[in-house]
Amino acid sequence: MQRDEFVQQLWLDYVHHHPDIGGLRLWPVESPPEYLALLTFNHGPWSMEALLPTLVRFGYRPVQRYAMADRGLLVTLLAAPDEGAWLVLAELQLGTLSRHPRAALEQLVAQAPPEATRGQNLLCRARPWPMPDWASYQTLAAAHPLAGWLAVMGPRLHHPGFDCGRLGEDIGRLDARLRDSGLTGNADRHHGVLPISPLLDYRFYPTQPRRLAFAEGDEHRLSLGGLALVQKQVSANQERTVELLLPHHTRCELS
Q1: Which of 109, 133, 137, 237 shows the greatest Cβ crowding within 10 Å of its Cβ?
Q2: Considering only CA atoms, which of 193, 162, 208 is closest in space to residue 23?
Q3: Average pLDDT over residues 163-177
Q4: What is d(CA 76, CA 88) in angstroms, rounded to the nearest whole number?
Q5: What is the signed CA dihedral for 227, 233, 237, 242, rounded to 10 degrees?
Q6: Higher-pLDDT residue of 34, 254
Q7: Which long-range contacts (CB under 8 A, 24 or more apart) does 153-156 make?
Q8: pLDDT tens-digit profile of 189-200?
Q9: pLDDT at residue 191 in the model
Q10: Distance of alpha carbon 33 from alpha carbon 27, whole angstroms
Q11: Is 13:160 a contact under the CB 8 Å cutoff?
């Protein structure tokens, strides 16, 4: 697998689960996202340590690591070798969950067949373990929203982030167009997966809730992903917008 194929599979998997995003035509379809926010957890082949060598082989370069203890996350920012989307790889630390939800998630993940734990496309496959029952999902989501998300979705692309500057549009105008398309944004910097730096204007748009069938056959509607818009507040600096995405105080040394 090459990098272009990896990105294409990420995107196809994402729009399969979020057709309301895939159908948007508010900017040219060839416009690349500024970043792709990938969500995983520190367990087996889906851990950041296990995934990074493959991403490096695809040409990505780890440039910063961030620790967010209040969210139980470690995040690695990976630069693309060209003008394409950077990767924001967020890893949920299972040790931050209390004993019962952690055991529930580990028990669920242990049911993944061996063939689902191998290969270079672990972030763009179907969920590798069975669907949880509704009660287990509620327990996990109450313990940590991202634990519930991972149980239902598996490690994969959570949301793309688009830079309004690269799209040639103001965030206010794009926000209005997205509202007209049925997506309501939230400017709360803690609404998405990650805390967002005050150096950026930011909106996160949850996708429309989808009806999902849980393990015991009952169905429930959940919103399981989204879309982000970002815009520099000061345009004079030369960094990519994604380099300003995460608060500076969360940055830590790359080991």
Answers
A1: 137
A2: 208
A3: 94
A4: 6
A5: -20
A6: 34
A7: 153/17, 153/127, 153/224, 153/225, 154/125, 154/126, 154/127, 154/128, 154/129, 155/38, 155/39, 155/40, 155/41, 155/46, 155/122, 155/123, 156/10, 156/13, 156/14, 156/38, 156/39, 156/123, 156/124, 156/125
A8: 665 688 899 889
A9: 59
A10: 11
A11: no
CB 254 within 8 A of CB 62: yes
Q: Which residue has the tokens 């209040």?
A: 70
pLDDT of the residue at 51 = 96
- Polymer length in residues for the chain: 255
Nearest alpha-carbon partner for 80 in 98, 103, 102, 56 = 56
Give the pair of three-digit tokens for residue 61. 């370069």
